Amino acid sequence: MNDQVLGVGDADFAQQVLASELPVVVDFWAPWCKPCQDVAPVIASMAETYAGKVRFVKLNVDENPEITSQMGIRGLPTLMLLRDGEVVNTKVGALPAAQITAWLDSRLNG
């Protein structure tokens, strides 16, 4: 994680994600997940690009079973966009940077 991507968990998910004034992209990941590792630098880069417009956080599913279950996470990596505490859209699987950017832009501007 870099300075732009905050690690969150069961204890602070509501405060850091659901109560955020900015839209939030949550990266649900696990340390053993190779596709998650592939997506991590894309998320870090996007966090810098969208600084001040979108908040980016990572949640380790192995360490945070409560939120993982509550959000219905069944595949990794899962990217979830939330606005005003509500899920706007979800993408599952390792996608190229261009597809992740297009997905986010379409949801922010749509």
UniProtKB/TrEMBL annotation:
Gene3D superfamilies attached to this UniProt entry: Glutaredoxin (3.40.30.10)
Domain of life from the UniProt record: Bacteria
PROSITE patterns listed in its UniProt record: THIOREDOXIN_2
Alphabetical list of InterPro entries matching this protein: Thioredoxin, Thioredoxin-like_sf, Thioredoxin_domain
Residue ranges annotated for the Thioredoxin domain, each copy included: 1-109
Keywords per UniProt: Disulfide bond, Electron transport, Redox-active center, Transport
Entry annotated with the keyword Membrane: no
SUPFAM superfamilies: Thioredoxin-like
Family statement drawn from the similarity comment of this UniProt entry: Belongs to the thioredoxin family.
This protein's name: Thioredoxin
